[in-house]
Design a protein that fits this description.
By secondary structure, this protein is mainly α. It folds into 2 domains: about 80 residues, no CATH class; about 200 residues, no CATH class. Helix content is about 70%, strand content about 5%. The protein is built from 12 helices and 4 strands, in the order αααααβααααββαβαα. The strands form 2 sheets. Strands 1-4 form a two-stranded antiparallel sheet. A two-stranded antiparallel sheet has the order 2-3. β2 and β3 form a beta hairpin. α9 runs parallel beside α12. The chain starts with 5 loop residues before the first helix and ends with a helix.
Length: about 280
Amino acid sequence: MNKLPWPKLAKFPPLGRVLIFLLIVVALWLPLALPLYWLAGQGTLPGGDLFPTALLYIIFLVVLPRWERQVRGETHPWTQVGFAGRRELAQGMATGAAIGAFSIAVLAMVQVLLGWADLDPSGVRGLNLLQVGLVGALAATAVGWSEEVLFRGWLLRELEQGWSPAVALGATSLIFAIAHFIKPLDAILALLPQFVGLLLLGLVLGWARRIPVGPGKTGLGHPVGLHAGLVWGYYLLEVGNLLQPTGTVPAWVIGLDGNPLAGLLGLTLLAGLGAAMFHWSRRRS
């Protein structure tokens, strides 16, 4: 890898750099992943595709700082990616998570107050609800960190090196939405109503990434926290069976298959969050 013409890569078009980066990651991952996939196919690897997928992300994290150092000469690559300091990350995550969880709570209460759904905590109680909440928090945090480092940490920054901030954010959000559809055809068709919601969510998280956390400094704390808060709130309602639709409005209003990303109410919430994040991102630190 050290023999590659790293400095020249900085002058490549943004999508060209993205493709080269991904090719490097895949080239390093594939020889290690193929035996794991074979073992999974034989039924001798617990977790199936989990280990090859985790390995792919680990290699991405290994390549990323070297890419920043070799291509751009960054001496603090993780800071440029969005790790803006412990205090800034902690504050951003806490604020984002609170906003995300509160937004899902507002979404639920609107449905209850309008008679579109009933709040039914009878399905999960006490320690079971606590267990669902803790498992959901761990899963939401993992999703938040993994997707935000990838899309708002690396990809958005890469596209901004050559494109305007607006175009880079739009392209990142589009790729973010499309990436959720790398599935078999029947799964793609089932998820299709969520596409607009995923695209809007990508914009919201992109603006959250640009919220100032210090003089001339932004970080991943806000988007990670916001992403995790939204996922955790949805997980709690869905797995905990806390919200039961009454059927008084069509499913597309509150979300097809119970998913807010595929419903008018959820899109309205994301639009409001987007307006708030956009305004916040334009404030001076």
